[in-house]
Write a structure and sequence with these properties.
Length: 430
């Protein structure tokens, strides 16, 4: 393989505290060395890439992605998801088990890992189904799935409801040191709701979900984690009360972590507008005070990672009355840009933001990605934090186009993505 030398870049690696102008050398797909800016000397036969002052950071690690393959390839395939990920600077994705068939079979775990490698653009880390078929009735073969390479266990956007079953899951997974990921929404309170209960939902005539549904499930499962000693993670937290409970659990030393997604710190419930189904999510978008609480939890470290919560849907899934339309939005292409909006408004520093997108989710998933350390795979993202671009549904890389950020100008453009030293994405001229 070729030797690459990145020059005139801002090296940013929150895992080591590196944040300075410099150079980065890659040999045979592996990071070989970093150097100060202005250093002399270029290895023979090295391809020199002039970053023109852009930020070079580890390839992003997205810990919450659903794809359509297998079972719903019309929504997204592994190949199309790889294109979307690369355009977003993402080199590692953890995929939810809620496909058809569900990832409750060790052979499917191995297959998806292999299919990721075959793309040459992404590493796929499969979640294992927590229950058989993700139906919430009987525990899946957690031990066998863990042995096959499942990085954690979840039923995706289906909450594990019976407390007894969740207790068993935490106990059993804990025996393998495995993480259980919960959808924080009490099912009986959520019911058939499709918007946050309140004035807006009432005015639009939409069945509401009380925000307390999140807090009740979080409070219950924190107690179960304390009882079992299990490793518990909450996905896409969205309310101030929810993050307060997690903050308190961490203060007590419990092994409890969480992530959130860009819609919950960038949008509020007003985004559903006049029944705008591309802004329909599970959990639903919240009131402005909850959005601000999520921003504060990102800043103080209560939230451990930012995930895209990429959920591809076909136009026919969304072009329905709001209550009947499918939930979810695409998120990989816009992950970095929307996160950087919180840098531009002063909520986060740039190192804080990149940490939430690289080594912090990598640590949760138990992967060595998300670093510029010597000897690490050369998975890289080169981006211009101030360069603007326009989100246009219908023109996004990948098959799915159901973005809630359609028409939104963003600052923070991915210029290039490298996987194991090979360029897999190059931005077109603006």
């Amino acid at each position: 393989m070729s030797t690459l030398l990145f020059e005139n870049v801002r090296l940013l690696d929150p895992s080591s505290g590196l944040d300075e102008p410099g150079r980065l050398l890659i040999r045979d797909g592996v990071i070989d060395a970093t150097d100060k800016a202005g250093a002399e000397g270029t290895p023979e036969d090295a391809q020199v890439i002039n970053g023109q002052g852009a930020v070079l950071c580890p390839g992003l690690v997205d810990m919450r992605v659903e794809i359509g393959e297998p079972g719903h390839e019309y929504r997204e395939t592994i190949a199309s998801a790889a294109r979307a990920a690369s355009a977003g600077g993402i080199t590692t994705i953890a995929i939810l088990p809620t496909c058809e068939p569900a990832i409750d079979n060790p052979a499917l775990v191995r297959l998806l890992r292999t299919r990721g490698e075959e793309t040459g653009a992404i590493t796929i880390l499969p979640y294992g189904a927590l229950t058989k078929g993700c139906k919430g009735q009987e525990l899946a073969e957690i031990g066998l799935l863990h042995e096959a390479g499942a990085v954690a266990f979840t039923d995706g956007a289906r909450a594990i409801d019976p407390a007894k079953l969740m207790r068993l899951a935490l106990s059993y997974a804990g025996g393998f040191g495995a993480m259980v990921v919960q959808h924080p929404e009490e099912p009986s309170l959520a019911g058939s709701g499709c918007a946050t209960a309140g004035e807006l939902a009432t005015r639009l005539g939409l069945p509401g979900i009380p925000p307390v549904a999140e807090a009740i499930m979080i409070a219950r499962d924190i107690r179960l984690a304390e009882l079992t000693g299990g490793r518990l993670h909450f996905g896409h937290v969205s309310t101030g009360e929810g993050v307060n409970l997690i903050r308190q659990a961490k203060a007590r030393g419990l092994n409890v972590t969480c992530d959130t997604a860009p819609p919950y710190f960038d949008l509020n419930e007003n985004a559903i507008g006049d029944f705008r189904t591309y802004a329909k999510f599970s959990p639903p978008l919240r009131a402005e005070e909850d959005r601000l609480a999520i921003c504060a939890a990102l800043a103080d470290g209560t939230i451990d990672a930012i995930a895209s919560d990429h959920l591809p849907r076909d136009a026919d899934d969304k072009r329905l009355p709001f209550a009947q339309a499918a939930t979810g939005g695409t998120g990989m292409v816009t992950l970095l840009g929307v996160t950087l909006a919180r840098v531009h408004d002063g909520t986060l520093t740039l190192p804080q933001a990149i940490a939430l997108l690289t080594h912090k989710p990598a640590a949760l998933l138990g992967t060595s990605a998300g670093t510029l350390a010597k000897g690490a795979a050369a998975d890289l993202c080169l981006f211009a934090p101030e360069q603007s671009w326009l989100v246009e549904a219908g023109k996004l890389p990948g098959r799915a186009q159901n973005t809630p950020f359609d028409g939104r100008p963003l600052e923070g453009r991915v210029l290039g993505t490298w996987k194991a030293g090979r360029r897999v994405y190059e931005a077109t001229s603006a």
